[in-house]
Each structure stands twice: as C-alpha cells, then as structure tokens.
Amino acid sequence: MIRIGDNGLPQWDYPRYEAGEKVALFIPCYIDQFYPQIAQAVVEILHRLGIPLVYPEEQTCCGQPAFNSGYWEEARRVIRHFCRVFAPYRYIVCPSGSCTAMCRVFFEQADPENPQVGEVGRRVFEFTEFLVNVLGVTDLGARFPHKVTLHSGCHGRRELGILEQPITLLKNVKDLIYCELPNIEECCGFGGTFSVKMPGTSIAMGESKAANILRSRADVVTSVDISCLMHVGGIMRRKPEMRHIRVLHIAEILNSRE
C-alpha cells in the first residue's frame, strides 16, 4: 500500500526478507551496454550480504522508452515479456529508480487488464531502498575519502519516495564528506526521450543542475540513476571549471574500499 509521508513523498509498505530467499537482478539496458561495472558492484555488495542472486538471461527492457513516447501497445509487449521472465521471484532488485518506478507504478497503468503485470511490477525494488527498507542495512563497511553530493532523480523521488535511503547510506561511508546539493528537488533535464525531443530545454536544465553541483563543492556527484548522471556528466565535461567532478553510481561508492 502507498501513502504520502510528512515530507510529501510516497511511502510504501515493504515485505520482510527471509534469509536464503533468492533475489533476481534486473539490470537496465544502459547499464548493461555502457556501465557494466555498476551491475558488478551491485552483485558484489549483495554477495557480501549473503543474498542468493539470480540473473534471468531472458530479460530485456522495462518498456519505459516506448511507454513514455506513447507507444503503449509496443510497451505492453515488452512489459509482458518482463513479467513472464521475472514471475518466479519475490524480490527483483534494480539499480535504477527510473526503471523501478516504471515497473512498480506504471506497469499497471500500461496494462490494466492483465493482473499479473501489476503484481510482478510491485515486486521490483530500487537497489538502495532494497538495502534500507527491505534488508534493514544502512552501513556496508565502505570507505570513500572524497566529498560527495547526491542528485535525486525525479522518478525515484516522486514515484517511489527514494531520497533518505541513499543519503543515509552515503553518510555511513567511512571518510566520505557528504555535501548537500542546492535545489536537490530540481530535475536534471534528461528524461530519456525528453532530451531528444526537447534538446534546448534539456540542456538548459542540465546546466542548472551542473551549476548546483559545482556550488556544492563536491568532487564526486552520485545518484541511484546513472542515466541522469550520463546527461549531467556530459555537460560538465564541456566546462573546464567542472571537469574535475566525477560521476559515479551510488553502488560504486558503496562497494568502494579506498
């Protein structure tokens, strides 16, 4: 069941994980193709926590690009395939707030006549919320001696209520200095196909986000969504005063032992 918390963000009821239960990994397309080290970090962290993992090789996409572009019939075909592949698993963990929101919130809207779709979609958990809200883990024993700020992606925050989970995990990383991001609630302007359809607006929003990252005085910007960081990181690489700021998915920091 979902409700709105005092902070104005959605709050969910989470199931209780029983030791030994298998967890299926859903790795989004862009992580699989461009940032496989993020998936590797997720696997290593969950292995250290003693979680039995399964990676269904038949998995493809969550259908978000087609859904957001209005191609709902095409999206439904992808969503139904997703649900057939992941149907056997009680927990499906994904290192992306955006793709998790697509599964948990929008599967049911895309295919309301198919009850299996909504039921499987509600079993998908973003990586940091799975750690904090399902496993009850807030300290992974990581060490990362750098100044870090957090970009809070829109889908994760507005649809799933993900904000405090990554901040709590970051603040428990040894020697990490957490730098608050000014106007953290603002969008980075990526929005998947939005950045293709509205490039001027998208870049302007990304430049505003990059300026706030610079103002935070952090050396590293992280997020639960590498797609947002890909957009902002591309903008920062073109600005000499920002080139020193690295972009890293939060799983890479939580897996660090520097």
TrEMBL record:
The record ties this protein, via InterPro entries, to: Cys_rich_dom
Which is one Gene Ontology cellular component term of this protein? cytosol
**Which GO molecular function, any one, fits this protein according to its record?**
oxidoreductase activity
Known Pfam families for this protein? CCG (PF02754)
Question: Where does the Cysteine-rich domain lie?
Answer: 23-102, 148-232
Q: What PANTHER family has UniProt attached to this entry?
A: LACTATE UTILIZATION PROTEIN A, UNCHARACTERIZED PROTEIN YKGE
Q: What is this protein called?
A: Putative L-lactate dehydrogenase, Fe-S oxidoreductase subunit YkgE
